[in-house]
């Protein structure tokens, strides 16, 4: 019987107990029956999943107390402890490290089980103070089975002590061949910086700086040969030559890139995203602090998402493999006229650049409002391109204010040629 668990999407398919709510009414047979029926439920945390299994174990023991002694001897089982170690560790990897360690009190078998985890997630939210959290993290790492690799690590580090903590954690992770690393921090030390960008094993890296100003200046070139997925939030790019920042060209395995709230250092004016292997690119929100211009040299790009305010000035070369583009932009008209006109121009320019390549175009409600405003004005109407290669146009409206048929028709009329066979999908969410 196949069992699947997931935390990221907040839904989980697994064979477990739906009758736990009736436990106190003596209806344990419902729990037993439901074990063999698949259902979908909302999962709050990994510990809830484990708790459900544990309660089911207690339920079965409660039911067995009503059987005869001979039947009890024959059927006596510990349902939870009969699960293979690999299944239990799979469940535990979705738990915060604090909850995972707390399972050591369940039984002798569980005392050492958490030490075999190869996925650890540390969040300060489950600790009363930052001091207790900063003490807890190194203790866990120091007491786990050091002969095992640490494949996945997700850590939050705050307060003035965080640089020392993060240096220790990062060094431990790299020594244990970490592959997936997610770091959220407000203070960054130079030692941490040098450790991260010397890794030969990292395939996924997420760096999120929570301070108001970016405290992490990336090197001119990111030399991470195994890196496949990179997510950068509130970092600073350093210019190399001619006022251009080109940090990604040396990441030969990079497949997916997400950039949010990022800056250019000093007088740099252009961010150059140059990578022949890159398949997916997301340009996130950069409220009034992003680079003036982003140059893309990514010939194998297939998926592009632009979720920005203001709209960046994008310059793209040939994109014969471009399949899908998602545009979700907002232009705050109460800002200076120069800013508004510049954003309008950047949006129109973006549409013109992708028009000859994209197969699927998805526009958010705010983007649709902007385009409708342009189409009803006297300026820039003739500049909107026609998407001759488009196979699907998806318009995502707001549930609170549904788009009128007139608005939809106006967008379709200008973006699609009359001979187009593209499928038009309108959703309200």
TrEMBL record:
Highest rank taxon of the organism: Eukaryota
The protein's name in its UniProt record: F-box domain-containing protein
Domain F-box, residue spans: 77-129
InterPro entries the record matches: F-box-like_dom_sf (IPR036047), F-box_dom (IPR001810)
Pfam families: F-box (PF00646)
């Amino acid at each position: 019987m196949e069992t699947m668990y997931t935390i990221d999407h907040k839904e989980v398919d697994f064979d477990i107990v739906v009758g736990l709510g009736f436990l106190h009414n003596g209806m344990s047979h419902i729990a037993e029956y439901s074990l063999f029926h698949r259902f979908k439920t909302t999962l709050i945390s990994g510990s809830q999943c484990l708790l459900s299994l544990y309660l089911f174990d207690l339920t079965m023991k409660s039911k067995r107390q009503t059987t005869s002694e001979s039947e009890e001897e024959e059927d006596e089982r510990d349902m939870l402890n009969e699960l293979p170690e690999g299944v239990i560790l799979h469940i535990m990897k979705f738990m915060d490290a604090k909850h995972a360690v707390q399972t050591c009190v369940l039984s002798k078998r569980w005392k050492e089980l958490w030490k075999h985890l190869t996925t650890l997630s540390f969040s300060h939210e489950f600790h009363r103070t930052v001091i207790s959290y900063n003490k807890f993290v190194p203790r866990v790492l120091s007491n786990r089975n050091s002969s095992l690799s640490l494949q996945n690590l997700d850590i939050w580090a705050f307060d003035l002590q965080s640089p020392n903590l993060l240096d220790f954690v990062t060094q431990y992770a790299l020594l244990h061949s970490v592959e997936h690393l997610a770091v959220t921090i407000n203070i960054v030390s130079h030692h941490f910086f040098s450790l991260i960008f010397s890794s030969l094993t990292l395939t996924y890296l997420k760096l999120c700086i929570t301070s108001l100003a970016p405290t992490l200046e990336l090197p001119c070139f990111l030399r991470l040969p195994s890196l496949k997925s990179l997510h950068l939030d509130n970092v600073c790019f350093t210019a190399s030559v001619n006022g251009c920042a080109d940090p990604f060209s040396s990441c030969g395995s990079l497949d997916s890139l997400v950039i949010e709230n990022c800056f250019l250092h000093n007088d740099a004016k252009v961010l150059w995203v140059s990578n022949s292997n890159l398949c997916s690119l997301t340009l996130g929100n950069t409220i009034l602090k992003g680079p003036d211009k982003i140059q893309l040299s990514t010939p194998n790009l297939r998926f592009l998402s632009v979720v920005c305010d203001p709209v960046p000035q994008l310059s793209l070369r040939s994109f014969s493999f471009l399949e899908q583009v998602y545009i979700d932009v907002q232009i705050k008209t109460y800002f200076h006229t120069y800013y508004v006109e510049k954003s309008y121009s950047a949006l129109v320019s973006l549409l013109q650049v992708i028009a000859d390549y994209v197969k699927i175009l998805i526009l958010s409600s705010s983007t649709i409002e902007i385009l409708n405003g342009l189409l009803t004005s006297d300026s820039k109407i003739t500049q909107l391109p026609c998407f001759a290669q488009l196979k699907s146009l998806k318009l995502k409206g707001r549930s609170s204010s549904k788009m009128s048929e007139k608005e939809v028709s106006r967008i379709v009329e200008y973006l699609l040629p009359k001979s187009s066979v593209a499928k038009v999908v309108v959703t309200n969410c």
